Amino acid sequence: MDQPRSAAEGETLAHGRIADTAGSRAGFRAEDRFEDRFDDEDYPAYSMGAAAEMLGVSPAFLRALGAAKLIEPKRSSGGHRRYSRYQLRLAARARELVDQGTPVEAACRIIILEDQLAEALRINNARDRPAGH
Q: Where is the HTH merR-type domain (predicted)?
């Protein structure tokens, strides 16, 4: 269930956790355990309206993040965009940068690079740890 979080593998943040950026679930499946959805950061639980309200942004801002390949929302069976908690954290970081005057495209690139750096550091730290620790 742990998905790669780095866009260095050719994915964006939102799909594989940074994208597929970023391992999200493809949709709502009957075989998914209901309890697992509460803890699944990749479960697309939030509608565009709810996500925009939570973040204090417009739906157009969320669409701009999608166009910039920062987040790629899943779609409900009716075609509506659905966002995960992980994607909302990325969007919140983008909003911080945009509020500081960074253009949306640049903010998205910064976040992707931050995510790649964090993943590289995680891999290096795991490699440097002796086996069994």
A: 45-113
